[in-house]
């Protein structure tokens, strides 16, 4: 029975990642990708933050709080899995630079196919229970992440009419599968989630805040771009990390750590996006209010 439930979870993850990647390709244009890549300083900052600064910060935090090896593995893999499809939506809520957010997401999703397994293989704690095969994971990610992403981009480029008809259903299906995956792992692993060491949970919260700060600091002088890079850096692709831990370390606390870290990232970054959007809305309303007050006084 338990084996059947675990198999269902893996199938759900595979389907979710395929649909999310295909939908992402449908929503991304070549112009957005090119525009993002032309901003070389910002793209270099994004790669620096996502593939160097944050992975090293995750390792340092896991050692600082003495995370158990399995929890540290899930935490680190989530920290080196950039390219979450949620980041453009949060950028839209925050009134950030949405075009850059979309282009950045595509670039990180492509890079993560190779970078995430290699970084994980390098940074994971040394433990007999954590036998990791980077090349095997790269092959899986090419099949389930890169090919659907490029297929969606190709459909959008070569068959724009078909892409237009598929876009809304693919987004809806992505959201449904995302909700189903979250519900599945919350229900299955609720007791284990509650039993996570408080120090490990605190490290996950701190890591999310550090990620936001790093993206903001590296985002340059423009506030909208800073917000987009902060959210693009801080929202990791938990689904990808969950797929890797489920395939590599089945039945361990690694997947529990990914679920916990993913929920923390969603809560913290959604709050940040809402606050930024609210502040921008208030700032936009202020001149109009002042003009009405001046007109009334005259």
Overall, the morphology is: globular
Helix proportion: over 70%
- Bin the strand percentage: under 5%
- Rounded to an integer in angstroms, the radius of gyration calculated over CA atoms is 20 Å
Sheet of most strands: none
Query: How would you name the oligomeric state of the polypeptide chains in this document?
Result: single chain
Supply the helix-strand structural class: mainly alpha
- State the low-pLDDT regions, or none: none
Q: Please, what is the average pLDDT?
A: 87
CA distance, first residue to last residue: 77 Å
The CATH C-level name is: Mainly Alpha
Give the CATH architecture. Up-down Bundle
CATH topology assignment: Na+/H+ antiporter like fold
Number of helices: 12
Written as H for each helix and E for each strand, in order along the chain, the element string is HHHHHHHHHHHH
Number of domains: 1
Number of strands: 0
How do the strands and helices of this protein lay out in sequence?
Elements: H1 2-27, H2 30-38, H3 40-64, H4 69-79, H5 86-93, H6 98-123, H7 134-158, H8 160-194, H9 198-218, H10 223-234, H11 238-248, H12 254-297
Helix pairs in contact: 1-7, 1-8, 1-11, 2-6, 3-4, 3-6, 3-9, 4-11, 4-12, 5-6, 5-10, 5-12, 6-7, 6-10, 7-8, 8-12, 9-10, 9-12, 11-12
Describe this structure in words.
The protein is mostly helical and about 300 residues long. The chain has one domain (about 1-285): Na+/H+ antiporter like fold (Up-down Bundle), CATH 1.20.1530. The chain has 12 helices and no strands. Helix 1 packs across helix 7, helix 2 (about 30-40) crosses helix 6 (about 100-125) and helix 8 (about 160-195) packs across helix 12. The mean pLDDT is about 85.
């Amino acid at each position: 029975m338990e084996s059947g439930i675990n198999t269902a979870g893996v199938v759900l993850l595979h389907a979710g990642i395929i649909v999310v990647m295909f939908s992402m390709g449908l929503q991304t244009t070549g112009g957005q990708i090119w525009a993002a890549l032309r901003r070389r300083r910002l793209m270099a900052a994004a790669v620096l933050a996502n593939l160097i600064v944050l992975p090293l910060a995750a390792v340092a935090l896991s050692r600082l709080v003495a995370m158990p090896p399995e929890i540290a593995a899930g935490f680190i893999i989530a920290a080196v899995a950039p390219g979450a499809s949620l980041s453009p939506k949060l950028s839209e809520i925050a009134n950030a630079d949405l075009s850059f957010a979309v282009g950045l997401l595509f670039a990180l999703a492509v890079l993560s196919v190779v970078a995430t397994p290699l970084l994980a293989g390098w940074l994971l704690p040394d433990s007999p229970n954590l036998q990791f095969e980077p090349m095997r994971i790269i092959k899986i990610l090419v099949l389930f992440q890169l090919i659907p992403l490029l297929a969606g981009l190709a459909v959008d480029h070569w068959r724009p009419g078909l892409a237009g008809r598929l876009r809304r259903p693919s987004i809806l299906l992505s959201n449904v599968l995302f909700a189903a995956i979250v519900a599945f792992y919350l229900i299955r692993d609720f007791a284990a989630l509650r039993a996570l060491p408080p120090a490990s949970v605190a490290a996950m919260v701190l890591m999310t805040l550090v990620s936001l700060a790093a993206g903001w600091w590296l985002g340059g002088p423009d506030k909208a771009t800073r917000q987009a890079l902060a959210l693009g850096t801080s929202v990791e692709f938990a689904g990808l990390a969950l797929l890797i831990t489920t395939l590599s370390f089945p039945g361990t606390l690694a997947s529990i750590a990914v679920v916990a870290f993913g929920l923390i990232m969603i809560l913290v970054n959604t709050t940040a996006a809402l606050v930024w959007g609210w502040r921008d809305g208030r700032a936009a309303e202020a001149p109009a209010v002042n003009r009405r007050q001046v007109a009334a006084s005259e």
